[in-house]
Automatic annotation (TrEMBL):
Protein name as annotated: Large ribosomal subunit protein uL23m
UniProt xrefs under InterPro entries: Nucleotide-bd_a/b_plait_sf (IPR012677), Ribosomal_uL23-like (IPR013025), Ribosomal_uL23/eL15/eS24_sf (IPR012678)
Coiled coil spans: none
Signal peptide segment: none
Organism for this UniProt entry: Colletotrichum gloeosporioides (strain Cg-14)
A Gene Ontology BP annotation from the UniProt entry: mitochondrial translation
Region (Disordered): 196-249
UniProt GO cellular component terms: mitochondrial large ribosomal subunit
Length: 249
């Protein structure tokens, strides 16, 4: 124990006297975040915190005493620098480093055992969201690399896709027949009528344009064929006349 602490051993355990001089500067509405980190391999008389980069050893000591009445006899601090990270588009950048502090406690603190039943915290929901996000990132990475896959070639992991595949297989094998639902939402009736009228108008316009196009194309085709036939006969006559002249000579 440091020499300056020897006379304060009895007072350290008093909940009313911290055993050291507190800072006199008052801070109103602080905006810093301090995280208590679980370290299972650290002795129980040491606690690890992640603190802002501007935090000092005196700050963490006064913070623990003023808020939680926790006595500390020593503080260690270090800064972990982050590795360079490549941006999705552009060059590299280095994230902001993280600062950690370990404080030596007068009264040891032991972390409780983690709960085995995680249902109250919706563990399955969070795990499903994490798996879905990972699958999305993998698909995007394959897409950017140019490795495209058909959806039918991918493994059917979702329940909806499996159920849909089973229903489609039953319809193709003739085990079930397609039956339209009787009760449809009435709000789709008007939309269906408008869509039907639009399709009929497009089909009628297409048929009219087709008839006009064929009507104008037929005379042009006849004239073209007649010209080609006339040119062919003329060329054949000239060729025959040339051969006869060669024979006379």
């Amino acid at each position: 124990m440091p020499r300056s602490w020897r006379g304060l051993v009895k007072k350290e355990f008093s909940p009313l006297f911290p055993g050291f001089k507190l800072g006199e500067k008052k801070v109103y509405l602080p905006n810093h975040t301090i995280t208590f980190i679980r370290k299972d391999r650290v002795p129980p008389n040491w606690a690890t915190f992640q603190v802002p980069l501007t935090f000092t050893k005196l700050d963490i000591r006064d913070y623990l005493w003023n808020l939680y009445k926790v006595h500390t006899t020593g503080v260690r601090s270090w800064v972990d620098s982050s590795s360079a990270v490549r941006k999705p588009r552009g060059g590299y950048y280095r994230p902001q480093p993280k600062k950690f502090m370990m404080v030596q406690l007068v009264k040891p603190f032991v972390w409780p055992e983690p709960p085995k039943n995680l249902e109250p915290w919706n563990k399955k929901l969070w795990q499903a969201r994490t798996d879905a996000a990972n699958e999305h990132f993998k698909s995007q990475a394959h897409l950017q690399a140019g490795n495209l896959h058909y959806p039918s070639e991918l493994a059917m992991t979702s329940t909806s896709r499996k159920r849909l595949a089973e229903q489609a297989k039953a319809l193709l094998n003739g085990e079930k027949q397609w039956v339209e639902p009787d009760n449809l939402d009435s709000k789709w009736d008007k939309i269906a009528e408008v869509a039907k009228r639009e399709r009929e108008a497009k089909q009628q316009k297409y048929d009219t344009e087709k008839e006009e196009r064929l009507g104008t194309e037929k005379p042009a085709r006849r004239e073209k064929k007649a010209r080609e036939k006339e040119a062919g006969e003329k060329e054949a006559g000239e060729k025959e006349a040339g051969e006869k002249e060669v024979e006379k000579q």
